[in-house]
Structure formats: structure tokens, C-alpha cells
Amino acid sequence: MSKLLKTLWFVLFLCCCSNHVSAVTLADFQQQLAKIESIDDKPRAIKEINILIEHADSNVKHQILAYSAIARLYHSENDFSGAIDALDHAISLAATHQLKREEAQAQKMLGVMLYFSGNNPKSLIAYQDALRLYQPLNSPLKVAHLHNNIGLVYAAMGSWSLAMTSYQQAKGLYQEHGSAQDRIDIYFNIAGLYSRLLRFDIAIEMLLKVIEERKNIDDQDGLALAYGDLGNAYRSASNYLQAEYYYKKSLRYYEETQQQYFIASQSHNISEIFNLLNQIEQAEFYATKAIKLGKATGNKYAYVGGLHSLAKAHFHQQKFESAQENISRALLLAKESKMLEQRTEILSLKSLIEAAQFKINDAMMTHRSYVELVNRDKNNLLEDRLVQFQMHQKSESLQQEITKLRQTEDLQKLRLQSIQQQRNFGIIAILLLSVASFFIYRRNVEVKLKKNLALKVAQRTNELELLTKDLQQANQVKSQFMANMSHEIRTPLTSIIGHAQAIVNGEVELAELHPQVDVILANSTHVLSILNDILDLSRIEVNKLEMTYQHHDIHVLVDEVKQLFLEQANKKGLEFYVTHQLPIPLMVNVDRTRLKQIFINLCSNAIKFTHQGKITILLAVNAEQLVFRISDTGIGMKVEQLNEIFKSFTQGDNSISRRFGGSGLGLCLSQQLAVMMNGNISVTSEHNEGSDFTLTLPCIVQQTPPVLSIEKKLMTRTQKLSGKVLLAEDHDDNRHLIARLLLAMGLDVIEAIDGRQAILLCQQHQPDIVLMDIQMPEVDGIDAFKALRSQGFMQPIIALTANAMPHEVDLYLEIGFDDYLAKPIERTQFRATIALYLKQVVASQTEDPLANIDMSDLVQDFVASLPNEYEQLSTLIKAQDYQQIALMVHRLSGAAAMFGFGTMASVSGDIERKIKQQQLDEANDLLKMLLAMISRTSLGANS
Questions:
Q1: Is the dihedral of CA 709, 710, 711, 716 positive or negative?
Q2: Which 8-state DSSP code applies to residue 694?
């Protein structure tokens, strides 16, 4: 019984509530909505309003108000899709029940949501529907607001004349019916339009007045908008520092008030400024922020702009694939939202990116689309001006024209009747001729098509036959290459494995250990050389091999190659000469590594194929061409062999590999490297008489300043180097190893653990040369370099870095570093570079002091430090502090490479690159691998 009473009581309560809701006045209902809208938990507020809608079935106005409130709540959460759905419900209800004012209000609100979501065409339709509904309702202020909003949409779509017309209509209504705030707002919008029309002087003057007025009425939101538009005007006027100042002023306000939609807009604007100032990392940061917030808040302008800015930044960094991906996404979104102005700028950048990727056809098509848009914009502007011109014509002149037209109308009718009769006869004749011509033409076309088809079939058949022959020949070349590679790699590997097994099995006496290891090292180097040649050719084929151009003394390079081959020539009983009449020094802008690679290949071939006689290297400069001629008295080649030697995996004949060894890669690779440096290799040869290989390269001789010229009379020839070197390196193990190398060369070493200490020690000791690591705590190598130069320190400063990518090296040299040395240290180059900048030459007969340095204790120290590295790295991974992780793996990469842990160095370097590219999932996978590698290395050392 008690349950029945409770149920009846609950039903009665619901009925009372229902009657109460239906009896609620419009004002009371609005108060209820306002109270619910003030709830911080917006999803909960939306649920409560939906409950109100369910109880307000009989009151359509209440439902419309409720749906509008839901739209506002969705808008506050940056959910434009939800807001638009709610407003569609409100509009449908109002239209069904003929509630014009409510429908107009909902349509206007819908226009606002669509505008902020970047859907300009639909926003314009909604505003125009609202205007149509408001005009008969005697609501001049509402009409003015709509004209203002319509002007904003037209401006966003690039329709300047229509935008100005709408603004002027709003301005007239505001003068009579609007508030001071309304008049400031329309003045502000017109200023923005002047900025878009490139009248920056007018725009800036108007915006400064707007800012003053908004300060007077304490309109903080309006001030932030004005600051942003003033930044736009200054940016368009190329005053980038002023633009940055006002953008950041606007951004600070939006960040304080947590308005994510507008934070996205200003982040995009600031990114554009940093791109213009060539501060690419800052531009990349703000562009990424604009993309993230623009997507989250539905701010399509910021989203598209952020993608555009990020593509610019990546284009500056030569990350063309990423730039292409971002610019394509931006173009697609701009097309969807009818962003004409943005599309024009996007197409301009897209054509540059495609050109940089050598996609010439795509670049031309994109540029054509860009030109079409620009021309369309110019035509629109011309039409606007024509309309304005016509509107200002006096009415009397129009009346005169109309009168003249009426006077000539009767005469024209008579003429038209006569012309019509002539035209009818002409049309019939033309039709008959056209039909006859058409059939004749069609028959001729069919005959030609049949002939062309037969010709194309025959041509295609011939092409397929040639292709089949090429494929068969390529297959034969491949088979021959595989046989050569099998022999070329198996032979040294057999030696390596045999000697290694002998050492492991204890078959080698301690006194004979060093020669055995030398054999293993020599054969390993040979295998590595073959693999490097194959990889270099592969990189050339996919356009991934980059050249690093710097000024180098050709004499130094030739002397290095001469010393490399002199002993080999002497062992074979060959004479080895270098002749030239070149200036000393001869500084030429070349890729030193690749030039030396070519030179070594040519000299190696000369010695390999010469049994008696001599090898001569002739150097000359002719008409801005640097000429290297390597002549030998070897086996030479027949005429038919000369056409084949520069092809991949090819030698003079199949017996060459069996008799002399070699993979057939060297000359092909050398020729391709020469072509990449705008040079060429040519050959003349006579069978059994010898060969002449001539390498020519462009040569603009670098005139070195007297202070830095390294002439022979200034060079000191010595057994060991002398001088004072400051070494700045934050990694202890690296620093100890490099210091040991420098001490072995005879140099005094001053050690600094960071850039700040390096500056102080330079001031105290005034070293002869500085080796400066780039990435260091406190003060990095670049800032330390700038500080030293600003203090007047002019001794050579050499960048010491694991970041030896070409674009990074270019940056160091552009900043002013005298040279760079890559980690891990290549000892011969290290010694030669130090000697070069100390103006000293080590006597050629002097034994290399770096050859036999024992660094086993340093390797042990490095391995002993790995557990600590493991703990630090694990802590950073748990905290997801990727910035510190990148710094740590950078240090670890350099140290691991220095001490022979190549795989660990490679994985660490990959992690750093993945973090820089924001590929964090891939970085996390590699970090797991690195931790396991560190753990295994530590355990292996302790076991």
C-alpha cells in the first residue's frame, strides 16, 4: 500500500512540475537559462537545458531560447558543430510557427557560428536570411549589425567592394541609431579593409584612433582585436618589429583570459612574422601551436594559416616533403572555405616547394593556378572601380545617352529587318557548307587516325623489343655484378675471418698480433670502401647525396693523396710524380671529401693497372677550370672499352676483375660525383700503352686575406706541433679523449666544460686556437663564439660537433666559425686541420703521433658511466621531458661514436632527429631499444 501511495505522489509531483514549467513566463525562463549557463561544467549545463526543453513542449518560444542557449554553451567549448546543430533546431521551430523575429535572431547567430568555423559561403547565406527577416520588423540596429557582419564575410572572401558597401550601410544606420561602441566597431572594420587593400597609412591611422577610443570605454576584448589588426597593418607595411610587438600584446591578453580561438589566430600571425625575420625555429613553434589550437577550436583561418606558416618554415629548412604535405592540406581547406586571399598565397609557396623538389610540371601547373587567381582578383578590383565610376556619373549625362538611344532606335529597327533577311540566306548557305565540310573532314580524320594508329603500333612494338633487349642486358650486367661482388667481398672476408679465428684460437704469438690485426683492418677497410661506393651510387640515383662546399687548399689535398699512394707505387717499382705551376696556396670552393674520393679512385686505378713505368699527376688552372690529369703507362684500353668504363658495375672486360680485382664501381661513382660538382672526367687510352684520365672542375680561385694566407714562407716545418689549444667540451669522456690526442701532437691543452668557462679561459690564456663544442649547458658553442668575437678575440675558432649535416655546417660557417671538425674524430683530418690553423707543417717522414694512442682506460670510463646515463635517461622518459632527452642523447651519440660504439651512436642520433621532427611515438620505440643497449653494454663490461 505504501508503495502505491508513493507512486501516486510522484506522478502528482511531475504533473505539478509540468504545469509549473508551462506556466513560467518568458522572463522567468530566460532567468533560468542564464543561471544554468553560468555553471562551470558546460556539458552538465547542456543536459539541464535539454531537460527544460522536454518540459517545454507546449511553449515554442521557450524551446527556441533553450536551443540558442545550448548553441552559446557549445560555442564556449569551441564546439561549432554542436552549436550549429542546436541553431538548426531553433530555426526549424521558428519557421514552422511563423515566428519571424525568433527565426531572424537564430539565423544571425547561425551566421556567427559558421563565420567563426571558417564556412564563409554558408555564413553569408545565414546573415542574408536574417537580414531579409529583420528588414520588415522595423529593427534598424539589428539590420545595421547584420550589414556589419556581412561586410566581415565579404572581406574574408576577398570581395572588397561588396564589403565596403555593407560597411557603409551599417555606418549610416549606426550614426542614427547606434551607440559609441557600435560606431567604433564599424570604424575598426573599415580600417581592417583598408589594410587588406594595401592602404596601410590610412589603416594604421584609423586603428590607432580605435585603440584610443576603446581604452576610453575600457573595452578590453575590443582592444585585443585592434592590437591584432594593427599588427596586420604593420606586417603588410613591412614593419615587422612593430607587428610583432602588437601581435604579442594581443596574444598576452588572450592567454590571460584563456580564449583559445584567438590564441590560435595570434599564434599564426606571430609565426608569419618570425618567418619573415628568418627566425625559423620560433616560426615553427608558433605555427605548430596555431595548427593545434585552430583544429581544436574550429578556427579554420588559424588552422589554414598555421599549416601555411609551418610549410614556409620547413621550406626554409629544406624539409621539402613535410612542407609539401602541409601546404597541400592548407590549400584543400582554403578551397573548402572559399578563402581566396589565402589560396593565392598558398599557391605561390606550393609552386616554390614543387620547384625545389624538381617537380617542374607540377610547379608550372600550380603557378598557372596562382596567376589565374591573381588575375581574377585584379578583374574583381577593376569591376569594383568601374561600378564606383558609373555610380558617380551625373544623372544628366545618363538622360542624354538614353535620349540618343531612343532617337536611333527606329532607324536601327529598319536596318535590322534588312540585315535579318540577308542573315537568313547566309545562315542556310553556311549550314550546307558546314555539313559538307564536316563529312569531308571526318573522313580525312579517320584515314589519318588509322595511319597514325598503325604507325604507333609499329613504334610501340619496336620500343618493347628494345626494352626487352635492355632488360636482358641489364640482367646480364646484374649477374656479372653479383659474381664480381661475391668475389670482391668474399676474398677480404675470408682473410678477415681466417686471421680472426687464428687470434681467437691462440694460434698467433703475441709478437705477431699487431701485423695480424693490421691485415684484418686493411681488409675490413676494403670491404667498407666497396659498400660505401654502392651506397653513394644509390644515394645519387635517388637524389639524396648532398654536397658540402667549402674553401680548401688544393695543395694540401693533393699532398695527402700523394702520401697515400707513394708507398704503394714504390712497392711496385713505379715512379710517382706530381707536377704543377699553381699559386700557393690555391683555395678553391669544393666538396673536399668528394674531390678526394674521385682523386683516390683515379690514382688507385692507375697504380692497379700499371706494372712498370710511372704515374704522373698534372695540375693546372685553365680559363677558370681546375684540371687534374692522371697519366699512367699501364695496360691501357681498346676503343670499344672506353665507351663502357663509366657505366655502373662495368669494367673494360670481364677478365679485369679476375686479374686485378675491383667491383667496377669506382669510375662510375667518380664520374657522377664530378657531374654533381659541375665537372667531368674524360679519358684517352691506347691498348698496352697507358691511359690518361682528366678531371675538370669549375675553379674560381679564392683570394685569401694576407692575415689568413698560409704561404710556405710562413709555415713552420716541425716534428711535432706546438701551441696552446683551448678545448670546450661538456662530455667528460669526449673531452679526455680529445685532450689526449692534442697532447700526443705536442700541444698545450686548456679544458673548459661549457661555453661560459670557455669565454673566461680564453680571456685569461689567449690560446692560439679554440675547439668549440656546439651543444653545451649554460652557454652553448654558438653564443660563446659570438661573445668571444665581440670581445675582440680573433684567433681561429673551430666548431667541434656531432651535427655534421650539410645545412648545419653551413650555418656554423655563416655565423663565422673558421672551420668545423665532426665527431667522431677522424684522426688524420683532425691533425691536418689543427696544423693548418697553427700555420705549421709536420715533416712528411714524421711518424703519426695519433696512430698508437692507447685509449682503453677512457673506453672503460665511458662504459662505467653508462649505468648513470641509464638512470638519468629513464627518469627523463618517465617525465616525458623530450627537450632534455634530445640534449642527453645528442651527448651520448657523440661519445658512443668516439669510443667505438657505433650502433649506440646511430640509435641516439636517430632519437634526436625524431624528437626534432615531433615523431614522438617512433622516438619512444627507439628509446626502449637504447635503454636495452646501454643495459647490455654495462652488464657485458661488469661480467
A1: positive
A2: E
pLDDT value, residue 664: 54
> Residue 170 is which amino acid?
A
Which of 225-239, 634-648, 743-757 is least confident?
634-648
Instruction: State the pLDDT at residue 84.
Output: 87
Q: Which DSSP category does 715 fall into?
A: P
Q: Pairing mode, if any, of strands 769-773 and 819-822?
A: unpaired
Q: How far is CA 758 from the centre of its chain?
A: 34
Percent of the chain with pLDDT over 90: 5
- Summarize pLDDT for 233-287 with one digit per residue, the tens: 888 778 888 888 888 888 888 888 888 888 988 888 888 888 888 888 888 899 8
| Whole-number Å distance between alpha carbons of 759 and 519 | 46
Cell numbers found for residue 294: 585552430
Which one is the CATH code of 550-698: 3.30.565.10, 3.40.50.2300, 1.10.1200.10, 3.40.50.261?
Answer: 3.30.565.10
Q: Where are the domains of the chain?
A: 18-119, 259-386, 550-698, 715-842, 856-942
| CATH topology agreement for domains 259-386 and 550-698 | no
Q: Which H or E run includes 676?
A: helix 666-676
Cell numbers for 932: 636495452
Q: Are 728 and 776 in contact (CB under 8 A)?
A: yes
CATH numeric code, 18-119: 1.25.40
pTM of the model: 0.35
DSSP type of residue 664:
S
Single-letter residue type at 322: S
Fold for domain 856-942?
Four Helix Bundle (Hemerythrin (Met), subunit A) (1.20.120)
Q: Which helix (H) or strand (E) holds 120?
A: helix 120-134
CB–CB of 53/31 below 8 Å? no
Backbone angles phi, psi at 548, to 5 degrees: -120, 105
Rounded CA-CA distance 356/276 in Å is 19
Of the candidates 600, 679, 660, which has an alpha carbon nearest to the alpha carbon of residue 652? 660
In sequence order, which residues have a C-beta less than 8 Å from that of residue 284 and are 6 or more positions away?
Answer: 271, 310, 313, 314, 317
What is the radius of gyration, based on Cα positions, of the chain?
Answer: 40
Task: Say how far apart CA 927 and CA 291 lie, in whole Å.
Answer: 27
- The helix (H) or strand (E) run that includes residue 230 is helix 220-236
Q: What is the pLDDT of residues 378-426, one digit of tens each?
A: 555 545 444 444 444 433 443 454 345 445 555 555 555 555 555 555 5
Q: How far is CA 424 from CA 420, 428, 701, in A?
A: 6, 6, 80
H and E: helices and strands count for the chain? 35, 14
The conformational region for residue 576 under phi > 0 = left, psi -120 to 50 = alpha, else beta, is beta
The CATH label, of 3.40.309.10, 3.40.50.720, 2.60.200.20, 3.40.50.2300, for the domain at 715-842 is 3.40.50.2300
CA distance 809 to 801: 9
Q: How many residues does the chain have?
A: 943
Average pLDDT on 765-793 reads 91
Measure the CA–CA gap between 177 and 677, rounded to whole angstroms: 73
| Cα 598 from Cα 586, distance rounded (Å) | 19
Cβ within 8 Å of residue 573, ≥6 positions away: 612
Per-residue pLDDT tens digits for 141-161: 888 788 888 888 887 777 767
712 pLDDT tier (thresholds 50, 70, 90): very low
Q: Quick one: pLDDT band at residue 783, thresholds 50, 70, 90?
A: very high
CATH of 259-386 given 3.40.50.920, 1.10.10.60, 3.60.20.10, 1.25.40.10: 1.25.40.10
CA-CA-CA-CA torsion sign (834, 837, 840, 842): positive
Residues 6+ apart with CB under 8 A from 682: 693, 694, 696
In the chain, the amino acid numbered 58 is: S
